[in-house]
Amino acid sequence: MKWSWRNVLMWFLPISVALFLIWQELIIPAMNNSTSQTDIGKNIASSRMTYGRFLEYLDMGWVKKVDLYDNGHTAIVEAVGPDLGNRVQRIRVELPALGQELIPKLKAANVDIDAHPIDNDSSSPVETIENLLVSIAIVAGLIFIFRRPNNIGDPNRQARAFGQSNANVQMEADTGVQFDDVAGVDEAKEEFQEVVTFLKKPEVFTDLGATVPKGVLLVGPPGTGKTLLAKAIAGEAGVPFFSVSGSEFVEMFVGVGASRVRDLFKQAKANAPCIVFIDEIDAVGRQRGTGIGGGNDEREQTLNQMLTEMDGFEGNTGVIVIAATNRADILDSALLRPGRFDRQITVDVPDCKGRLEILKVHSNNKKIDNDVSLQAIARRTPGFSGADLANLMNEAAILTVRRGKSLITSSEIDVAIDRIVAGMEGTPLVDSKSKRLIAYHEIGHAIVGTLLKNHDNVQKVTLMPRGQARGLTWFMPSEDQTLISRSQILARIVGALGGRAAETVIFGDSEVTTGAGNDLQQVTSMARQMVTRFGMSKVGPLSLESESGDPFLGRSMMSGSEPSERVVTDIDKQTRAIIAECYQQAINIIKANRVVIDYLVDLLIEKETIEGHELQEIISNYTKLPV
């Protein structure tokens, strides 16, 4: 073995510390113990005396000196008297306690008093073993610390790695995802075709003097396939794919985030052409200097470094940055300008056609009954994202296995939709007054919604509890609605008030329950938005509230556009007027159709669920349905 100064230091220092600790913990206490025991042996006498006898000697003036030990519980008394042969005797006395009256007596008798402290150097065998184990642990730790640099080879390796990027690099040409695997976002895929072409054949653009966008920002709600689309771009182009989350750049230590940004783009330039995908970029790209408490220095330094890397003094040739967020409104304006993110592509919730394509993708590997209509499922799931539809098909497959079936049927899919939208199914209600009241409440929603011209069609009415709801009335829109008219909003308000109107008409004001609490929240929100955002009231065509006024953005508290007290009063009056008018309309519908309502309630209590087509057929026998 070749000895160097590092090896000598590695073994000499721990062994020296070990010997010092053993000397301090074992040898010195042993020497102190022997010395202290010898001294105590000299002081303690062999003869003993009772405490009462000691007091008698003290009264007769025979006590000359008292040495106190063990916190005053033991005394060595020097006494001279006729009973002691007129010689100085050392006698041991056990004192019950060092009382307050003993010291004055000793001082009054001119007795020499000396107190001896307890010897703390002595230790028990258990304490000695514990000290020895601690010493061994310290020595082992020192050896481990001194040996680590030799094993690692670079003592500064960890410090450098702390500032490196944590990006997940996929160097293979195939990411496993193609454009065919991404459905429902045809517009976004068309936009990205140019990016794929540039990565495959850049000369097509460079010959004409065109440059590909340096950055593309994907904006859309969660679960719409932004990350999947970015992987599909890399898979189509066959280039390396760097994937990182925006939150991985932000650290407690100043400068770490900026260091990771530099390292990420350094790796990307070395592997160009490539794609850098930053998910949830709003974690690091939020507006600078905003919020009630000001900005975050570390996050802003990280953002500044990202801005420099994306459009600095040198061009990032062949490096395309794709970022995803669902909060584009809070991103810094410098990040969104052309030259950094040249394009913003909206990846929105799919329409009916897009949902059908997504359902086809997620049903390829599942055994589905031939009677199942994916088109019908797509119509029943407005507002579902791609992730929601994938979860829907998975829940239906799990329920099929639970029921012991070999094929997924419409029944499992219907139950899966209900579970995703409203929650787990609860225990059926028992026949009681409460069940009948809930039945009238739900039939009130259903009949008002059916008899209103601009309301969505009723899909079904059920008394099966789901989540927090004791009963549910499902409505299915006839088509995807991007624009909603004033008559449609008023119809929805009237339909939402149908349950409360039925309770009032059937049972009276004194029996009205809390079941309409959620309905009233929705009604108030819709009516207020009609007044303050959509200009659908007598207040006029004014927009008095923004869609989002989060204080942390530093906007709502500094905008200075608060309406006057008179306008606020008018807003409240118009909101109340809209709700009151709609509620009266719901009351009139319930009163005019009391007979069919009673029949439907009895049928609902008996069957637990009434489908929409059956409901419309029954109502049409009593009154004319709107066209």
UniProtKB/TrEMBL annotation:
The active site is at E442. It is found in: Cell membrane; Membrane. Zn(2+) binds at H441, H445, D519. ATP binds at G220, P221, P222, G223, T224, G225, K226, T227. It is an enzyme of class 3 (hydrolase). Its EC number is 3.4.24.-. One of its GO terms (cellular component) is chloroplast thylakoid membrane. Its cofactor is Zn(2+). Keywords: ATP-binding, Cell membrane, Chloroplast, Hydrolase, Membrane, Metal-binding, Metalloprotease, Nucleotide-binding, Plastid, Protease, Signal, Thylakoid, Transmembrane, Transmembrane helix, Zinc. The keyword Ligase does not apply. It holds the Pfam family Peptidase_M41. Residues 212-351 form the AAA+ ATPase domain. NCBIfam families: FtsH_fam (TIGR01241). Homohexamer. Belongs to the AAA ATPase family. Acts as a processive, ATP-dependent zinc metallopeptidase for both cytoplasmic and membrane proteins. Plays a role in the quality control of integral membrane proteins. This is ATP-dependent zinc metalloprotease FtsH. It comes from Porphyridium purpureum (Red alga). The gene is ftsH.
